[in-house]
Amino acid sequence: MKIKEKEFESILQELKEIATQMGAKIRFERGDFKGGYCILKDSKVIVINKLSNLQRKIIILSAALKELGTEEIYLPPKIREIIEEMDETK
Length: 90
Fold this sequence. Notes:
Distance between the termini: 12 Å
Strand order of the largest sheet: 1-3-2
């Protein structure tokens, strides 16, 4: 799926809302890492490098949501397609 650059911010916002609804905490931090999903003291945490561009943030957040499991919840078709298509290799 081709995402227009002007849509990146709104897509990222939607993905963040979905992660929050799924009980995950999102942290934007600086460091020498890409980011991803982990469990920290029984809390679901998604860490994203603050310095990454919007596209990279969407890729990381999409991969984390896919790992959390989005099959059982309603997602807008466009968001579901993004989550299914995005992976870390892009």
